[in-house]
Amino acid sequence: MSPKLPVWAPGREGYFGDFGGAFIPEMLHETFAELRAAFENACDDETFWQSYVDVTAGYGGRPTPVTFCENLTRKLGGARIYVKREDLNHTGAHKANNVMGQGLLVQRMGKKRVIAETGAGQHGVATATMAARLGLECTIYMGEEDVARQHPNVFWMRQLGAEVIPVTDGTRTLKDAINACLRDWADSMADTHYVMGTVCGPHPFPQMVTYFQSIIGQEARAQMLALAGKLPDRVYACVGGGSNASGIFTGFLDDLSTELVGVEAGGKGIETGEHAARLAGGKGVPGVAQGYKTVFLQNEEGLMQDTHSVAAGLDYIGIGPMLADLHEQGRVRFESATDQEVVDALRLTMRSEGIIPALESSHAFAAAFREAPSLSDDDAILINQSGRGDKDIFTVADALDDEGWKTFIRETAARYAR
Ligand SMILES: *Cc1c(COP(=O)(O)O)cnc(C)c1O
What we know:
Keywords: Amino-acid biosynthesis, Aromatic amino acid biosynthesis, Lyase, Pyridoxal phosphate, Tryptophan biosynthesis
Strand order of the largest sheet: 3-4-14-9-10-13
Structural class: alpha/beta
Number of domains: 2
Order of helices and strands: EEHHEHEHEHEHHEHEHEHEEEHEHHEHH
Bound molecules: pyridoxal-5'-phosphate
CATH architecture of the largest domain: 3-Layer(aba) Sandwich
Largest sheet: 6 strands, mixed
Distance between the termini: 59 Å
Strand content: 15-25%
Family: Belongs to the TrpB family.
CATH topology of the largest domain: Rossmann fold
Number of strands: 14
Number of helices: 15
Shape: globular
Pfam families: PALP
CATH class of the largest domain: Alpha Beta
Radius of gyration: 20 Å
Protein name: Tryptophan synthase beta chain
């Protein structure tokens, strides 16, 4: 069944409460109108959602299971702990859902080429995979700094047939890649679609990406009823741009007995200024940037702040407008977890359950572990594991100061130096 989405603010299409909108240059107006029409048309077509479900099943491995974590439950001694396994998607994270959904829209619009920006490279790899599968041309914009830091993903994007363009403007990171991508789109919109990776940016992207990701919550709600015999008392999800959180939360929005908890990057601690907690720390300020209105981490002059997280996917200044509104309404509670808490939660999960969550997802685990012991064994909590941690081997090995890993890197480098 096609998902139901939260309603707009009265008379303000594209706004969730006070947040959202589409602040775009005039030359993109027509392209956005075309995209809105294509999306609305798809939503009205009863076969579209089913074709999306079929693609995510046959190609992506859905439905992903919910796993009861008996060992963690026993060790922490409180609520029963369940995990929604988005790590089992093709390419290892929830990003694959949205990308395949937008791929189907591209086919309906008859476009031949997709472009995307990527920070850590996960969205770039997912987009390149979809483009290869659907026979589309693909260009990925990535800050030169990120190309150097995230080389394994650059390698795979190129092997998948995508062109990766290193962006040399500004700080040579994600925000510069977004600008380069928008410039490309302004010139190429007739045959090109911009695949937005999260629930941010101008309307209709926040709504569209939520629509595709809501498959997570739709599955999870039915799975919890079958497996736990009840709805979860709390649902935890990490929040970068907010797409995995929006996806799982929409399944439970009408279930007021289910508390929804978004977990942001506490980095080195909110008091240090090196974090990406927009809502949990109360440091974010409403503003307009990158084509939409939301709560951003910015200074008094409105300049965007530098953010930090051990998890590249949570290292972002803005947040999905729907989540900003749900926070204001008090429907979603926001917490943060520090880099250290996150690495500890990752280690405990690996050792207890043989599950390797991504560093991003480990934020949700860290907050859930903090709260589970104070709940009772009648309570059930659900953690959204947005992705798998294999990609984080460089960062995690470094954080754990693993000697064997360092020797391996040294010897590999020496082999290339000869
Ligand atoms: C990209 C990413 C995130 C953050 O993005 P959201 O839009 O906030 O979901 C979280 N987890 C994983 C594994 C990611 O790759």
